[in-house]
Amino acid sequence: MPLNSGKLISIEGGEGAGKTTVFNAIRQYLGEAGLTVVGTREPGGTTVGEQIRELLLSPDHRIVPEAELLLMFASRAQLVQELIRPALAQGHVVLTDRFTDASFAYQGGGRGLPVAHIEALERDFVGIRPDLTLLLDLGVEQGMARAQSRGQALDRIEQERTDFFLRVRETYLQRAAQEPQRIVIIDASQPQDAVVRQVLTALARWMSA
């Protein structure tokens, strides 16, 4: 991977997959490799996006699937224009906790919205895909047990039923099968240190390709 070329790396996975731990490990690894890393998250990452995030995740709101999808893409469009594209143009690495794959998984697989609608929004309002996606995969029951063990109130999406998350996971795995060059599956059922080692090995392999 040329050090003077902007790259977009995303971390995906279901609830309790350990994305935050992996995010911090990747950020440190790339920084030590001499790269400038711009970190962000979805939904959020900008002032507008964080306000949308609060609305989307609050259990106090009943949001229909179509509105949820459009709100996700409103946050994403703001993030791409305000932060991601400028950072890539400067040759930085953008590391994001979720990106458009999450909409295919959650609003497509989970909510059952047409894939064609998501593809159109991605094409018209995002226009970029990650250069590398690390998919932290683990069973739904294990993931939810981890999420609940944090001792924090579950957000609106975390409160969904098991069958919702089963569809989300299946969609993620289908996308990984369709794009194996971009999406690397990481076994997130392992202890944290083992997951981090697997992630950094995949990252080093990608950087040397």
Structure description:
The protein is an alpha/beta fold. 56% of the residues lie in helices and 13% in strands. The chain contains 8 helices and 5 strands; from the N terminus they run E-H-E-H-H-E-H-H-E-H-H-E-H. The chain has a 5-stranded parallel β-sheet with strand order 2-3-1-4-5, with helices on both faces. Helix 3 runs parallel beside helix 5, helix 4 runs antiparallel to helix 5 and helix 4 crosses helix 7. The chain is globular. The mean pLDDT is 94.
Concise description?
The chain is α/β, with parallel strands linked by helices and 209 residues long. It has helices at 19-32, 47-57, 65-89, 100-110, 115-125, 140-149, 162-178, 192-208, and strands spanning 7-13, 37-41, 93-97, 132-137, 183-187.
- Strand composition percent: 5-15%
Radius of gyration: 16 Å
Pick out the low-confidence regions.
none
Between the first and last Cα atoms, what is the distance in angstroms? 7 Å
Largest sheet: 5 strands, parallel
Reading the helices and strands in chain order gives EHEHHEHHEHHEH
Secondary-structure-based class equals: alpha/beta
**Helix run count:** 8
